[in-house]
Each structure stands twice: as structure tokens, then as C-alpha cells.
Amino acid sequence: MKITTLQFTDDMLETFNKYYDDFIVYLHYLQTGLIHHTSQIDDIKQSMIIIVSVNPNVKFPRYGDVGLDLYADEDAEIPHSSNVVLVKLGIKSYIPVGWEAQIRPRSSLYKKYKVILTNSPGTIDPTYRNEWMASLTSLTGSKITKNTKIVQAVFTKYLVVDQNSRSKNITNMLLIKTDRQSNLWNNWHKLLPTDRGQGGFGSTGN
What we know:
The chain has 206 residues and is α+β, with helices and mostly antiparallel strands. It is 18% helix and 31% strand. The protein is built from 6 helices and 13 strands. It has a 4-stranded mixed sheet, with helices on one face. Strands 3-12-7-9 form a 4-stranded antiparallel sheet, with no helix packed on it. The longest helix is centred in the first third of the chain and has 13 residues, at 20-32. The chain starts with a strand and ends in a 15-residue tail after the last helix.
């Protein structure tokens, strides 16, 4: 799998928004050396995962590693109670249909902080465009500080019950680094719209 990291600035947003298909084709060329026409954009998008991060610590997994380590992007107080705290992870994504990101606790999460990931594994659907969050609770009460490595994401394929599905193997991953004030971050759901959009925990049913 080819992995590319891109530092994204607001002056690139207009180009990204207006010429999105050409932009993705160009990125695919940088990653693979293969030239495609924009008419093939659907095929390219089905083989690519895009991660937008405001946390400079986030890196794609090294060869042989399974999970993408994710960091708290805020200080969080996890009280000793049955309450659940949603901790921002500073990540948004584009994931093709047929794939999901499973959010799993790191092995040190309970050992170090006495904190539990309540929905383990959590699922990031391909239609989700809002910020990733970790749903945490604590048996003793704990504090999580910003930039603490707390969970990991594992990308897995799932069965699509649709004869017309174009789900295929992922061959390219793109990590776009930006900041929380950028237009790219704040308009991600508009650039790659879905019916679900920014709806998060509990938004797809009761």
C-alpha cells in the first residue's frame, strides 16, 4: 500500500473544492505513477482512504503495524461514574463504501489511566464526515491530557449487501495535515457530502 502525507493550507482549498476530481487523480499519480482520466475518479476513490488531521502527531502505521495510533486533541476529565465522555481525536475521514475504521483501545489505556473505551470496537462508517471521537468512561476517575495516545484505528473490509457495490481493495492512503481553524477542516462534510454527513453517536437510529 502506498502512503502519502500532505500538509494542507487554506490557499489550496479553492483548488481542492473546484477541481476535486483532478486533485484526487493527481494525488493518485503521485502515489502510483499511473495516469488516469477524471472519468475514472470513482474507481480511484474506491481504492483510497483520506484522513484529515489537525494533530501533527498523527502518523500512518509503519509497515507491519496494524493500528493507526490516535491522540486526544483536548484535555478531558473522565469522572468516576457511569457517565460517558466523548474525547475529540482531531480526525475526519473519507473511507470508501465496503470499508470501515474500527476504533479500539490501546493496550495501555486501562493500565495507565483506568479508562475504558465504552463501545469497543467503535465503528467509523464510510458515510461519516464529522470529527472522530473516543467514547470513554472510568472506574476510578481519571484525566486525559491533550496529545495522549489513547486509541487506535484499524481499517477493515465488510460485506456490502448491494449487487452494484464497487467496493475494492485499498491501495492508497492519504494523510492530510491541517489545523482546526482551516476551511478544509470546517467544510469537510461539504466537500465530500453524504446523507449522514456530520451525524455522530446515535444519529443513525434509536
